Amino acid sequence: MSLEKLIIIGSGPAGYTAALYAARANLKPLLFEGFFSGPAGGQLMTTTEVENYPGFPAGITGPELMKEFRDQAERFGTRYLQEDVVSCDLSQSPFKVVSKSGTYEAECLIIATGATAKRLDIKGTRDGEFWNRGVSACAVCDGAAPLFREKSLFVVGGGDSAVEEAVFLTHYASRVYIVHRRDELRASKIMIKRALSHPKVEVLWNSVVDEVKGGKVVESVVIKNVKTGALETMPAGGLFFAVGHLPNTAFLNGQIELHPNDYIKVVPGTAKTSRDGVFAAGDVQDFNYRQAVTAAGSGCMAALEAERWLAARE
Ligand code: NDP
User: Fold this and answer.
1) Residue 147's domain spans which residues?
2) Within this chain, do residues 78 and 56 fall inside the same structural domain, yes or no?
3) Cβ distance 206 to 86 under 8 Å?
4) Per the structure, how many domains does the chain have?
5) Any catalytic annotation for residue 138?
6) Per-residue pLDDT tens for 224-247?
7) Residues 112 and 167 in one domain
8) If DSSP codes are grouped into helix, strand and coil, which group holds residue 112?
9) 161 CA to middle of ligand 1, Å?
10) Is 300 assigned a catalytic role?
11) Structure pTM?
12) Is 194 in the pocket of ligand 1 (CB under 6 A)?
């Protein structure tokens, strides 16, 4: 087993930016991109147009942007492994990182594993029910499937993801309903305007999904008005959750300090975790901004701190 100077776990804007900086500092980072846990490149791989990443005035698609990040880090010597890290041992340096192919050792670690879309536990949406048969947590990944064509589709949530996904689904659906539990969306003003002015989009205010029904695939949803308690069954071809994310920290098995919501705690203004020599960057430690550009910035911070930490040990 060879000893790595730096292992980076995670391949979104944070992981790739950390890799770029570390590679340029000659640390020859080894980066675990993930495999079953989601596409290499992270959440931007399932986003359409990114209009708010500086430097791209005409916009760029999420996958294109991540390819640029990846290629740039590779150019300076980053090595990639398309594998998930399943566990690690942070009890002493060198730290051990375990994937399906084996155990790797590193003097220093950067964790940039991001966060994963949440699902709600609603009757009819569970595994073995209509999950993956009309129920999804990613409209951009699944929305183009034939099963959703010219159907009424429902998006649960009231944030930017919900309105973005609703507008995306109008390419395929006959009608898109945003099911939101309150009477106000939390999405940004520009996104709300885009959704509400779209002729195919309608918001079901103060509403939740009570049940999803169907035969082989989804055929209807039962909508409950949370103010009146009234139930209404509406024909449906699909249901998409857009209700936020969970940080990917389970593989750490409690070895570094987390916030009560399971995001990694870092020393404010730094990428330092509770474990000396372990740094965190991107959405896995940020439940506030959660933007590609802030993730990239924190990846840069983590790499600079890792570089200094390694230099101080030598
Ligand atoms: P958010 O956390 O912003 O929104 C989650 C939504 O789900 C909220 O409206 C919330 O309702 C609702 N929700 C949560 N739990 C439940 C529940 N149990 N039952 C019913 N509804 C529920 O997540 P997003 O993924 O939308 O956005 C995350 C971040 O990513 C944000 O910072 C956003 O700005 C950013 N983003 C930016 C995009 C862009 O600029 N293109 C695109 C997508 C995301 P409530 O409002 O009542 O709390």
Assistant:
1) 119-241
2) yes
3) no
4) 2
5) yes
6) 999 999 999 999 999 999 998 899
7) no
8) coil
9) 6
10) no
11) 0.78
12) no
- Same-domain check for residues 10 and 112: yes
**Does 206 have pLDDT greater than 90?**
yes
- The domain that contains 181 carries what CATH number? 3.50.50.60
260 vs 246, 254, 263, 265, CA distance in Å? Answer: 12, 12, 8, 10
Q: What is the pLDDT of residues 148-187, one digit of tens each?
A: 999 999 999 999 989 999 999 999 999 999 999 999 999 9
Instruction: Say if residue 111 is in the same domain as residue 250.
Output: yes
**Nearest CA residue ID for atom 43, ligand 1:** 161
210, 241, 272 - which closes a domain = 241
Token duo for residue 286: 């940020």
142 is catalytic: yes
Query: Is the C-beta atom of 160 inside 6 A of ligand 1?
Result: yes
Residue that is last in its domain, among 241, 269, 285: 241
Q: Are residues 218 and 259 in the same domain?
A: no
| Given the residues 84, 88, 142, 286, the one annotated as active site | 142
Instruction: List C-alpha distances in Å: 143 to 211, 251, 274, 292.
Output: 20, 30, 40, 23
Q: Which helix (H) or strand (E) holds 194?
A: helix 189-196
Residue 141 pLDDT > 90 = no
Residues 144 and 222 grouped into a single domain: yes
